[in-house]
Amino acid sequence: MLLYPVTKEVTFLSARTIIAGVIILFASIGLVSMLIGDPLALLQRIVIFAVIAGVIYFVFRKVMMGGGGHGKNKDQKAFLKAAKQSKKRYNHKKTTAAVKASAPNPFRKKSHRKKSQANLTVIEGKKIEKIEPLSKLDFFIWLDRIKY
What we know:
Elements: H1 15-37, H2 39-64, H3 74-102, H4 136-147
Helix pairs in contact: 1-2
């Protein structure tokens, strides 16, 4: 006994699917016939296609990404610079800590101040403007609008 109704769905191939199948069939027949008849010409066409596609890709990338610098805008460059500085600082602290651990100095005065672990760098760019607080009069006007 079935608890849910059974519906019979018949899917028909759309015209787009049939056309795509015919194009793929003709392309495979042409590829096989060219491979059997003249494999060197097939290899030459593949290489020419790859070169043309590569040139189009690099021209498109250069034009669409804003020219030089791999398309990074000013803010992106500033962020990458800050990230690189942070990475250098972190690696430098790591190597100096390893050197200090290997050769402790008993005469050195120990510092009781803890250093902050946050390495923050200011990135120039657009800043959000501060919103001025509402005056008492504006607040009551706003409150009256909400009630009604």
